[in-house]
């Protein structure tokens, strides 16, 4: 067993709640541009004073509506400005926010609002009505609904006009550090989601630590970020609270298909994303270059290799003159264009949710974007470990943040401890007891290792270990992450439990496929024909061979099958945070799996 605890340089949270941060910002810098909102492709500023006033007015409306301190209020919506206003208004009214993914099914929504006893819900008309209407009659305690597209925030402000400032202040300060701020339901790869009780103290401790730990994000001129990840996820939510706390202007991108356009107009200095976004940018740029011409394709490949070599040389403390000259040349030809595509000002990003991989980490640092890979769970308020610009080891998820303890059990499981660890599962004492040790450590269910310098590496999921018929333990994440990094692969599920060897189910990336086919002189055809095409299978086999280089022969993928249907959130095979629902996939594609061993 190996244990590492990092001393806290952040004072403990002894009083107050998250709303104090907005009050402090207003008192300190009322004209700070807290938020930018987009109207007709133009971004306009909302100052700290304006944001605070709107939040307070909406909170008064909630009080006038009869909502009581401690009531749970859901938000079922895409990431948008109104989401943020509603979230803080709920807190100002002394209530608890229950975020729900707008992609959730009616059954999932019904379970969450029933389990958490939601009494009111903010949602988007059209997009989420399908999930809301079927449950309204089934959940009698949910008596109010507020539709963002109906200008409901202004209507709530009008209803609250007679609520006094003193009454609002009493409600705003009614919650303390140990009280719930939000119930975030884990998307869950098996069973019903569990509601994680994240307290005001959890959020404050995590946010204060983050702001102090990464001045390269917060202490820069005109710092800004564009939030496009779901605010229903703890990762996006934490960053939003941190940005408002650390005086970083935020914008919202509700539509992922408009991301590149919005990045170009908003011009953020910092990004928050999951590895799949960085993979898409890299793979799309490579495919575009190869499609343009063989020469441009070769230039891109050489530029990518140079960026990686340059970053690796930085790790070794010496960049040769020749490599420096090549890097400078490609910066003008390639890297500057990639940075321009992301707005031209971005210098740092935080990546989480899955493994980024050393190749992409080195590539992006080589082009001038330092990606800080970190690790945490909903139960740990997102962050527990993080690579810092001053303490960066690409390929790891960083060292424990100040105030965090990390421990590796004898079976390899990672345990975490600190003020950011949740207060337990809502209405589920048995699950809480199972998740915590007797001395207060949270069992993550992930397997990893701490190196001699205290950097953590994730090697797999404890419950997802595959045991072959020969008794070999195989962590599927290593192979799956490397395969998904290949441009032709969309998703991958490694199988082989109680089987003689390891196999894989893979799907093709339909966005990148046309360019890949053209670059390899493969004729386009229906998916049912492409998955049997010998040339397409050869490209997938090449990707499999590359992934197998990371493991021993007994852990390597011996056979694969290409599925005709992709694995997506919409068809239920991915969770909203893009984790695969392994048990469901194994169940529904049992015939394909058996075919690997026929």
Q: Report low-confidence residues grouped into runs of 5 or more.
A: none
What form results from the Cα inertia axes?
globular
How many H/I helical runs? Answer: 22
> Strand portion, in percent?
15-25%
End-to-end distance: 41 Å
Rg estimate, integer Å: 24 Å
Q: What does the largest sheet look like?
A: 5 strands, antiparallel
CATH homologous superfamily annotation of the largest domain:
ANL, N-terminal domain
Structural class assignment: alpha/beta
In CATH, the architecture of the largest domain is: 3-Layer(aba) Sandwich
Which CATH class of the largest domain is shown? Answer: Alpha Beta
Proportion in helices: 25-40%
* Domain tally: 3
Strand tally, please? 25
**Which strand order spans the largest sheet, edge to edge or round the barrel?**
1-17-18-19-20
